[in-house]
Each structure stands twice: as structure tokens, then as C-alpha cells.
Design goal:
Length: 101
Amino acid sequence: MQLDRQGFLADPSSWNEELAERLADTIGIRLTEEHWEIVRFIRDYYRRYEYLPNARLFVKAIQKSLGADKGSSRYLHKLFPGGPLKQVCLVAGLPKPPGCL
């Protein structure tokens, strides 16, 4: 597993679910089905649109696709407390999203 300086997967094409578990471990997250739902969502979003949304659009896209309960900042921060968009992209093997420090 090759990571860049910020911990993101250097070769996104090498991603698989086992690797996602290892990436999640690096940030102290144990993946549950709720996490996987968001990880699969962002991977599908990236595959479909070939770019990553900013944090605000991320929450709105989840809300539209998965419902208001899951498309809320509170819910996403509970799953990914270190910054939902950044952490979900890291676990999903995607590039660092725009606007994330």
C-alpha cells in the first residue's frame, strides 16, 4: 500500500475493500455498514462525474441519494469525525477532495 504524504492512496486503481479497512485503521475508524454505504456512495459519485464535490455538495448529494437522515453533517461527522469528505475519500482510495486542508 503506497500512500502520498497526506495518507491518500498513491494509486487509486489498486483500491479494494480489504485495503479500505487498512486505510480506515490508519485514521482510527472501524468500518461498519453505515461507513460502507458512504464509501460506496462517494466511489460511485467519483466514477460517474469524474470529480469530487466540495463538502457542502457532498452532504447535499448524500441527502438526495440516501435521505435526510444520512445527508446531514451531524451524521457524517459521527461516522468520520476527522472531516467527513476528507476521511471518506481517503478510505475510498480517492484523491484528496478540493478545499480540504
